[in-house]
Amino acid sequence: KYLLAIFWLILVIIAGKSLGSTGYVLVLVPVVFLFSEAGRIRIALLFMALALIYPALRNAGLIPLDDIVGFFNQFSADRAQSLGFRFENEEILLQHANERRLFGWGGWGRYLVYSPWDGTQDAVADGRWIFVFGSYGVFGFIAEFGLLATPILLIWMRHKRLPEGQSLTHAGTLALMLGITMFDLLVNAAIVPYIWLIAGALIAAAEKPVKVTRRAAREVKPSVLEITPVQEPERRTII
User: Fold this and answer.
1) For the chain: N or C, fewer Cβ within 10 A?
2) 12 lies in a domain?
């Protein structure tokens, strides 16, 4: 059944002709099969860090956008053109968002840029991060992306405290799914309810007490309480 499910998912990815989905599969499937739970958590931390650092570097103008577009142009001119279009719109929205950097423009689409002549929309928001930053500012970005990053940090800290040889089952895979989702939110805005379900599951796993197995319980030697008898003092007699 598992092989049939994997085969079906591969067919769906091929039929979708999505470069991003294909890239995620080529990177993440070997990670799941070749790395341990601890290794998957570390890679999830890497994706999480990229998702948190990119907006700051993008705002500071330190991202080599032309080099990135040129790299993708080697594989597909259409994909490179689409990515360049996203970067151009992102730049327009970023300049508008910086006018109200701390708390953003709020709702009703005010984070977007409109033409002063006919009121048409001049830029399109593709990434979730630019929508959150433009609508709710720095504090809103920290609130949402920090809420997604916290479970990964907690599960990593919990895994470090586990005894040697023990691991949290499937925690690394779930953390990897959450980390790659955070990374994907840089270019896409698809955040679905199951992402919050994964975040909640990781927090629950991080706060769950470690169960002591029967074998581990047998290896722990019970402390022996030594009882020393009380010696009565010698009775002195006249004789």
Assistant:
1) C
2) no
